[in-house]
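Invent a record, attention on tokens:
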Amino acid sequence: MTTEEPSAPPSIPAVQALIADGAFEDALHALETVVAHLERGRLSIDESVTWYELGLALSRRCSDLLHQAELRIATIEDRYAADPTANDPWDED
């Protein structure tokens, strides 16, 4: 029976890049990996705090991206609710 080794967390510079400009899916995957890394409990207190802070920033990035998507969807819905005769956004004229 083989035991799967948990994923190693991304490097700190890679996490910082995702926080600054990462796609939702990439930031979420990194957040899940950071949480698993913290849960293993093999870190010093300073390392734990650093990874916790990075995890919070990743969580904030994911929340911001979700909020932007919600606003975009609301704008699209408002536009098409205001003009029910409008073509579907994916229809080509």
The CA atoms of residues 21 and 58 lie 11 Å apart. The chain has a mean pLDDT of 87. The longest helix spans residues 45-82.
